[in-house]
Amino acid sequence: xxxxxxxxxxxxxxxxxxxxxxxxxxxxxxxxxxxxxxxxxxxxxxxxxxxxxxxxxxxxxxxxxxxxxxxxxxxxxxxxxxxxxxxxxxxxxxxxxxxxxxxxxxxxxxxxxxxxxxxxxxxxxxxxxxxxxxxxxxxxxxxxxxxxxxxxxxxxxxxxxxxx
Length: 164
What we know:
By secondary structure, the chain is an alpha+beta fold. The protein folds into two domains: 11-19 and 71-162, PH-domain like (Roll), CATH 2.30.29; 27-67. The protein is built from four helices and eight strands. The protein has helices at residues 27-46, 50-67, 132-139, 154-162; strands at residues 11-18, 73-79, 82-85, 88-91, 95-103, 108-115, 123-126, 144-145. Strands 1-2-3-4 form a four-stranded antiparallel β-sheet, covered by helices on one side. Strand 3 (82-85) and strand 4 form a beta hairpin. Helix 1 packs antiparallel against helix 2 (50-67). The longest helix has 20 residues, at 27-46. The radius of gyration is 20 Å and the shape is elongated. The N and C termini lie far apart (50 Å).
């Protein structure tokens, strides 16, 4: 009797990734962040923009609560039927294209998966120590490659710079 394949099909590649990047913030970083948040709150109150004030407070709480929480390790699996990230399965039909950005000298070794839906943010998967060539060759069987993407997005660069 044949063994039933998992939802992602036959496993082609797999590795573990963090659910998010985790930065240790210094007291100086919190001081600067706190002053900027306070300035934003004062501006929001003076301009009667209470929604902006609420957003500032919520972002501050999220950053403080995430400070001491280690990110969960997730299984990332590329299969013949789709991609598995943690417990979430993505069929290849959900993606428009993929990109492999491999610039080790700049510290960039990432796989980008672009959703067909404009409302969904692209998935950025760190390649870690995996060889990008066989991963790229296999993904070409299922997805179109986006050769126009040559680096990280502006939001990722800013996030790394600000350690968010």
